[in-house]
Amino acid sequence: MSEPELIRLRPRRIRVVCWASAAVLLIVFTLVATSLHGATGSGYGTFQRGDQLAMVGLGVFGALGFLLFTRPRVEADARGVRVRNIVGSYELPWEVVRGVRFDRGAPWASLELHDDDLLPMVALQAADKELAVEGVRALRRLHQAHLARLAENTPHR
Fold this sequence. Notes:
- InterPro entries: CFP-6_PH (IPR019692).
- It comes from Micromonospora globbae.
- Residues 71-141 form the Low molecular weight protein antigen 6 PH domain.
- Keywords: Membrane, Transmembrane, Transmembrane helix.
- The chain crosses the membrane at residues 16-40, 52-69.
- A 4-stranded antiparallel sheet has the order 1-4-5-6, with helices on one face.
- The longest helix is centred in the C-terminal third of the chain and has 24 residues, at 130-153.
- It folds into 2 domains: 9-69; 72-153, Pleckstrin-homology domain (PH domain)/Phosphotyrosine-binding domain (PTB) (PH-domain like).
- It starts with 6 loop residues before the first strand and ends with a helix.
- α1 (13-35) runs antiparallel to α2.
- The protein is elongated, with a radius of gyration of 23 Å.
- With 157 residues, it is α+β, with helices and mostly antiparallel strands.
- It has helices at residues 13-35, 49-67, 130-153; strands spanning 7-9, 38-39, 46-47, 73-76, 80-84, 89-93, 97-101, 108-113, 118-125.
């Protein structure tokens, strides 16, 4: 028996955009923080070191928010498929999967389950074009291989 195929898929374009956006946001908030000094306007307050640190902290939290969108991934092998989206993770055996869908105009691919649910796979995004198509084809090959193994093991009448 050969080594089982393991497929790992991650979005490409959204990761680049998110990392760049996070860096820009952090730089902007840091620059704004360094410009905060002196009086707050016509009032009696003044900007303190804590205000500057809070502004940098807001930039860090904003950047981390952008980086959440780099979280999606899909891993699959002969046993099943593991989907990690922006919020939530799922581990499914192939037995519960009816098919792998990537409908025209859809922003990402999805798994069609036997209970008529659709599980989105945000890691396979239409924006990644050929990379996403190849990922869907690889998942479909694994699913078909599972169905073939089931047909082999089913006694014929």
